[in-house]
Design goal:
Elements lengths: L1 H21 L8 H41 L11 H28 L6 H11 L9 H11 L6 H30 L9 H8 L11 H16 L4 H11 L15 H30 L7 H20 L9 H14 L7 H30 L18
Helix pairs in contact: 3-4, 3-6, 3-10, 3-13, 4-5, 4-13, 5-6, 6-8, 6-10, 6-11, 8-11, 10-11, 10-13, 11-12, 12-13
């Protein structure tokens, strides 16, 4: 009897002590979150400088290889171009980014982060250089690292940058869907396996153009991939569950409102029109006045740019959408270039490829030159304020 009264209370006490160790105190971060945070702090002391050096070397390698491959194309040097139109294409490319940068600044302000305008421009444009390394996270990490000295909390910098990028891509897919639905051409092509194989082989579509329903279907699929996860009800729930190990349960997380989502679609859609006009400027620099530009043609080219760019983004293992973007540009531009006088399928395909290569060269040079210029903008260092209980 004494054994029963002594042993069982001891067991209950041991169980209570074990449960107390497993249950975090109110107002403290769970043990898993503390362990991950301490490990990250220790590793950051030595791996971050090494990672920056490796990143810069990888960046120089991939950009250099990209330029080397593009400049080796013999057809690039066999035509006369109109340099003014190429400069205009570069300016339109910068305006595309300006719209997205403005939306990112709006998201930061919605999260009570108010960096200086110069620091925002510097972080956004210099951060774009990171996309030339395989993997989409490098550009976000670089941008967050550049905006942190301006008083923005690193967690919110990454949070808003990620949402801005994916919203911009969703806007591009939506622009492609709308423009193809309005300006697309109806042909006799059917949605079957033979049509798909013809698209893979870059053959001339039946009817001389990619059918409206095929283009709309491709744009719709891309919109589902990039658009559904960022719908505010879906996105906020994902952020809540994914951040649980790294924060207190009572912490207040930033939330994306439906108004901010719709505002992002509206702002970045203007940028997509600028990007489509940039493609038109390069096309004009290549073919000159030989091509007749109608409202329907301009609308389809803007839709092509949105679809090709978002497709390159979705394929995450290719740096800056390499190859995927060129494929879709050739697929959709070849039928448009067949309208030129005395141009057959092979010549139209070569012109489409030349346009895509030249477009990438113009964009890369513009990006590097402008990023090198804004990198030297002065940044007033401000310590980011982290409210108690919230992730930094």
């Amino acid at each position: 009897r004494r054994f029963v009264f002594i042993v069982f209370p001891l067991k209950n006490q041991r169980q209570k002590a074990a449960e107390k160790r497993r249950t975090p105190k109110k107002g403290t971060v769970p043990r898993r979150g503390r362990t991950i945070a301490s490990m990250y702090a220790k590793l950051r002391q030595w791996w971050w400088p090494v990672a920056k050096v490796v990143f810069l070397l990888a960046l120089a390698f991939f950009i250099g290889r990209l330029f080397y491959k593009d400049l080796q194309r013999p057809e690039l040097w066999q035509r006369s171009f109109h340099p003014a139109w190429l400069v205009f294409a570069g300016v339109l490319y910068l305006l595309y980014f300006a719209c997205s940068a403005f939306y990112w600044r709006r998201l930061l302000r919605a999260c009570n982060q108010t960096p200086a305008l110069g620091a925002t421009i510097r972080a956004y444009y210099v951060g774009q250089i990171g996309k030339y390394v395989p993997g989409k996270a490098w550009a976000l990490m670089l941008r967050a690292n550049l905006i942190t000295p301006a008083g923005v909390r690193p967690g919110l910098a990454t949070f808003t940058a990620f949402y801005e990028v994916v919203t911009t891509m969703a806007s591009g897919a939506l622009i492609a869907l709308v423009f193809f639905a309005v300006f697309g051409q109806d042909t006799a092509a059917a949605l079957d396996w033979d049509t798909f194989l013809a698209m893979v082989r870059l053959e001339a579509p039946a009817g001389g153009a990619v059918d409206r329903k095929i283009a709309v279907l491709l744009a719709f699929l891309l919109l589902c991939v990039v658009g559904v996860p960022i719908l505010p009800p879906v996105f906020n729930r994902l952020v809540h569950h994914l951040s649980l190990p790294f924060r207190e349960k009572i912490a207040t997380l930033p939330r994306i409102r439906m108004a901010s989502f719709l505002e992002g679609l509206a702002i970045t859609s203007v940028g997509w029109v600028c990007l489509g006009l940039s493609l038109l400027a390069v096309l004009h620099a290549v073919v000159g006045p030989e091509m007749t530009w109608t409202t329907a043609t301009v609308g389809r080219v803007v839709g092509v740019m949105g679809l090709a760019y978002v497709a390159g983004f979705v394929i995450v293992f290719m740096p800056n959408g390499l190859v995927a973007r060129e494929y879709f540009l050739m697929l959709f531009l070849t039928p448009e270039l067949l309208q030129l006088p005395n141009v057959d399928l092979e010549q139209a395909r070569a012109l489409a490829f030349l346009t895509s290569v030249l477009l990438r060269l113009v964009w890369t040079v513009t990006e590097l030159v402008f990023a090198a210029g804004v990198f030297w903008l002065p940044v007033q260092r401000v310590a980011p304020a982290t409210p108690p209980g919230e992730p930094s």
